[in-house]
Amino acid sequence: MDTDSHLIPAPRTTHQADAPNRLTPATTLHTAPGTEPLAALLRGTIGAATGLALPEGGGDGEGDGNTDRIVLRLDPDLPGGPEAYRLSTDRTLQNVAALVEGATPAGVFRGMQTLRQLLGPEAFRRAPVAAGRDWTLPGVTIEDSPRFGWRGLMLDVARHFMPKDGVLRYLDLIAAHKLNVFHFHLTDDQGWRIEIKRYPRLTEVGAWRSRTKWGHRASPLWDEKPHGGYYTQDDIREIVAYAAERHIRVVPEIDLPGHSQAAIAAYPELGNTDVIDTASLSVWDTWGVNPNVLAPTDNTLRFYEGVLEEVLDLFPEDVSPFIHIGGDECPKEQWQKSDVAQDRIRELGLGGENELQSWIIRHFDTWLSARGRRLIGWDEILEGGLAPGAAVSSWRGYGAGIAAAEAGHDVVMCPEQYVYLDHRQAPGADEPVPIGFVRTLEDVYRFEPVPPQLGPEAAAHVLGTQANAWTEVMENQSRVDYQVFPRLAAFAEVAWSTLPAPAARDFADFERRMAAHYKRLDALGVDYRPPAGPLPWQQRPGVVGRPIEGAPPNR
Ligand code: ACM
């Protein structure tokens, strides 16, 4: 198979040479200064799959006459930003088996992902399946760099917990698709998933629920067993370190002031105690937009500062310059009824509940800025006035992102109409728990993160894009895989490659390359949706979804 023409995401330029190459038991690995930590990652993936030891050859191997070597080195002059790389497997040019050069170590790492794809699908296994086979490489020189600096996947581990091993596996899958942001949705009404030492009840009480709605919230079905789990602080440190090794940034999300019932169940004083009996609340067991929101009190602000102090400690600035504080779907009914909230609005001279929410967001914007971090929130944070340094995840469409970018704010485009991977990917009745819009692989491939009406100055504020996987109806890793793949492959190409306008994109060619990519996903053990539809065990017959095309998704 001419693997170089099956690359996903598609590289910027490829020069083909009639000089195939190969890796052998004699192949050595040479790491020039700055690339040393990448050797273990290359041996852990390509080395494990091929069974080749790839012993260290020393330095960059220049001039030692050994042509049977992989060389990793930096070339800061490579154009295209820190993740730019050049990969050559053309022996006539380089006199090596493979030369991977990056503008920075991140660029070398991205180039290593391309090298793995060039070796064929078996290079995605964890151990060799055939002894003594040849590992051929097509002779190519590839020059590549990403279109966007923010290429993300958001994983909701609150609605359904994903054990730590699954998160590490997802970081590997993200890396294999050249994505570089992992948005970690850690808290919601249905669960609090991060250990906070000073508030142990957040996980003692908030990390589990006694039962779970099975299907969309309109479904009459319940799963009557407890569900839960959380990451200890060491688990979080491990996840962050694992991401950092793979040049993936982590954006932790602590959602406030809505989506907070798990926290209120743990610490009832965080809720609107003058409106409802918050002590009677438990971690929410069903889905939807929840009226039980945080009280806008000093106590709440101090409490969340305490949470964020530990979060900043666990997610250091180099891996997590952005901290997500949610801000989405905060119903205002309790604040309307609450004397405490109304007094606060009066004291502060605010114009109502939206401005009260904005005041809370601004508080944390100031607090995070003072600690060298940047706040990012869902697009509702625009309502009532956006805090000056804040960035926006534009999820309800393009509109908020356009307004924010035009006002000079940075934006991550993730409109639910295109890149919400919880939405069903085909119209058939056999799609498991069909939710929201039908968004096919082709729809995702034709997603354009920068709307054409943005002028160049505003367009420069689009940091990039991310796909979001909300897990209300994804009860385990296999269901997450089904929703995320294969669409994440199309998304990865949209985020990395410079593609024509949506209508002009060559989806047929993408599908042709997907034939090879499905084999890579098979080797990786990904439970993707097959092109012909769900396998019998991937279906969820009888579980109610919300399969109304054109209706608001109303998860
Ligand atoms: C969201 O989907 N509520 C951000």
Structure description:
- 31% of the residues lie in helices and 16% in strands.
- With 555 residues, the chain is α/β, with parallel strands linked by helices.
- It folds into two domains: 3-144, Chitobiase, domain 2, CATH 3.30.379; 150-253 and 276-289 and 296-538, TIM Barrel, CATH 3.20.20.
- The strands form six sheets. The protein has an eight-stranded parallel beta barrel, surrounded by six helices. A six-stranded mixed sheet has the order 1-8-5-6-4-3.
- α1 runs parallel beside α3.
- The longest helix has 18 residues, at 353-370.
- Residues 328-329, 378, 395 line the site of acetamide.
- The site of acetamide has 4 residues, from loops.
Q: SSE layout and pairings?
A:
Elements: E1 13-16, E2 21-23, E3 28-31, H1 38-50, E4 69-74, E5 85-88, H2 91-94, E6 98-102, H3 105-118, E7 135-137, E8 140-144, E9 150-156, H4 164-176, E10 181-185, E11 187-188, E12 191-192, H5 201-204, E13 208-209, E14 212-213, E15 222-223, E16 227-228, H6 233-245, E17 249-256, H7 261-266, H8 298-314, E18 322-326, H9 333-337, H10 339-348, H11 353-370, E19 374-378, E20 391-394, H12 399-406, E21 411-413, H13 416-419, H14 441-445, H15 456-459, E22 462-469, H16 477-484, H17 487-496, H18 507-524
Parallel strand pairs: 3-4, 4-6, 9-10, 9-22, 10-17, 17-18, 18-19, 19-20, 20-21, 21-22
Antiparallel strand pairs: 1-8, 2-7, 5-6, 5-8, 11-12, 13-16, 14-15
Helix pairs in contact: 1-3, 4-6
Catalytic activity: Hydrolysis of terminal non-reducing N-acetyl-D-hexosamine residues in N-acetyl-beta-D-hexosaminides
Family: Belongs to the glycosyl hydrolase 20 family.
Domain Glycoside hydrolase family 20 catalytic: 148-498
